[in-house]
Design goal:
The protein is α/β, with parallel strands linked by helices and 497 residues long. The protein has a domain of 110 residues.
């Protein structure tokens, strides 16, 4: 069935509290998607972000980002006794970009005020399902709460720099920490409860309006995360908690030294021995939140690049075999058939292509990769199969408007000939690409909101391998005006999506 959707991360939603939240603006955007005839809302990972603010390097692959908790989602008695609603005044100077430094300084303090009020009034009394939530999620929730509490106590140090008794999870040390940090542990349980409480309401609203949520799961966990600290056997670690190997990609035409990501790589033999228990829980958690799941860096399940820990670059790495098709068959056997998208972008081998085909998952096509005057790219629409999900660009790409500006003379001429852009107004370029996408054979197409609006480089979500300017852009409500919504609906219906 043909469908269309929009890519807009939660943090990019408009609103007055410094970052996109799970409140009224999220409901507003879901309503706008319905008006525009869309079927999908694609977001990025929703985990708690750390250094660099990347949702692909969260402190936990299971937890939700407390920045997204909407102050107005709390009862009136909490708002009256705290400074939560005053928070809007701190961000009035610029609502177009996320100020993570200010959020980091303020958000925890204000949430803790709300927690203290609710704890005093009786969390279990006012939220009868609180204990049920904690029990259902105990396999990850307690370790996440302990990890965050210890991290705060130790001044934000990554877990691999903690004292050995804590780094290596000495039972006695953790029992003493549990007594010492009891209130903090409860606070982090409470945070996750409210995140999921607000998330469920938003997802139910979207689904009731015919909108399916496409979520995202990074293949690797962050080196500094509760996942790595609490489950060292899952990764290629030595007995002292140090990685033996870390993830990255080898040297190529874009980088002479390759890319050293630094994420711990999995010990797939151990995962097989446990019948993929951790992965089953991780996937189940994802499908508790999302209707469709995009697996980032899908190639890592076929082969993954290992770099010896301590190397300065990726030159000394080597490829190892991943779990392959057997992994996905086992997960399907446990969870049933699920809607999964394989992020199969980049340099692909025949074995990766075969894995994507054998799973039956739709792969990804990106039009910004299609137009090279030097060769006929596989991303050109006439080469696509129906079973794919196609984009103008992803969160890692430049916006369409600036992409046109940065094309070489030869590539621009190719695009112009392909789309018949000669003698057409510059404002029409974006729509020409979007029409090509919507009219393609792809079962599902996704357009970033910036491309529908026609925004330039200042609204780009992420420039890979850079820090400081990413994950910040926010939509302004006036940009999703009635004229745009009508145009989106007209084109979506024209191409029977």
């Amino acid at each position: 069935m043909r469908g269309a959707g929009v890519l807009l991360p939660i943090f990019s939603l408009p609103g007055k509290y410094g970052i996109g939240r799970l409140g009224r603006e999220a409901f507003w955007f879901a309503d706008k998607l319905k008006e525009a005839g869309q079927s999908y809302w694609q977001i990025l990972p929703t985990g708690p972000t750390g250094y660099g603010d990347s949702p692909y390097q969260p402190f936990s692959t299971f937890a939700g980002n407390p920045y997204f908790i909407d102050p107005e989602g709390f009862p009136d008695y909490v708002l009256k006794e705290t400074r939560l609603k005053e928070e809007e005044k701190a961000f009035l100077e610029d609502l177009r970009y996320v100020n993570y430094e200010k959020l980091y300084d303020r958000n925890r303090k204000l949430l803790f005020e709300a927690y203290q009020v609710e704890n005093y009034c009786g969390i279990e009394k006012n939220y009868p399902d609180f204990q049920e939530f904690c029990e259902k999620n105990k396999s990850w929730l307690y370790d996440y709460a302990m990890y965050m509490s210890l991290k705060e106590e130790l001044g934000g140090l990554p877990w691999y720099e903690w004292p050995d008794e804590l780094k290596l999870r000495d039972r006695g040390a953790l029992e003493r920490a549990s007594l010492r940090l009891g209130d903090s542990l409860r606070f982090y349980h409470w945070q996750q409860y409210h995140f999921m409480r607000q998330w469920r309401k938003l997802k139910e609203h979207a689904n009731e309006n015919g909108i399916l949520i496409i979520g995202d799961i990074p293949v690797y966990v962050s080196a500094d995360s509760a996942d790595a600290w609490a489950n060292p056997k899952l990764y290629q670690f030595d007995p002292k908690g140090r990685p033996v190997s870390v993830a990255g990609v080898p040297p190529d035409a874009f980088s002479e030294s390759g890319q050293l990501w630094g994420n711990p790589v999995y010990d797939w033999n151990y995962h097989r021995q446990t019948d993929y228990k951790w992965w089953t829980e991780r996937m189940q958690r994802a499908f508790d939140m999302y209707d469709v799941l995009r697996i980032d860096h899908f190639r890592g399940f076929d082969e993954y690049y290992c770099i010896p820990f301590g190397d300065k670059d990726a030159k000394g790495g080597h490829w190892e075999k991943g779990p392959g098709l057997a992994f996905f068959k086992r997960i399907e056997g446990k969870l049933g058939k699920k809607a999964i998208i394989a992020e199969d972008l980049g340099l692909l081998t025949d074995s990766v292509r075969k894995l994507v085909k054998d799973t039956g998952f739709p792969g990804m096509k990106v039009l910004e990769f299609a137009f090279s005057s030097k060769e006929r790219s596989d991303y050109l629409p006439y080469k696509w199969e129906k079973n794919c999900i196609a984009y103008t660009g992803t969160h890692d790409n430049e916006t369409l408007y600036t992409w046109f500006d940065e094309l070489s003379k030869e590539d621009l001429e190719f695009v112009s000939d392909y789309l018949d852009l000669k003698d057409r107004d510059r404002k029409e370029y974006n729509e020409a690409v979007i029409r090509l996408l919507l009219g393609s054979v792809a079962d599902t197409v996704i357009v970033p909101m910036q491309d529908w609006i026609g925004l330039d480089y200042r609204s780009r979500i992420n420039t890979p391998s850079t820090l400081g300017l990413n994950w910040k852009w926010r939509l302004e409500k006036k940009q999703a005006d009635e004229e745009l919504i009508k145009r989106m609906r007209k084109l979506t219906e024209l191409y029977e999506r």
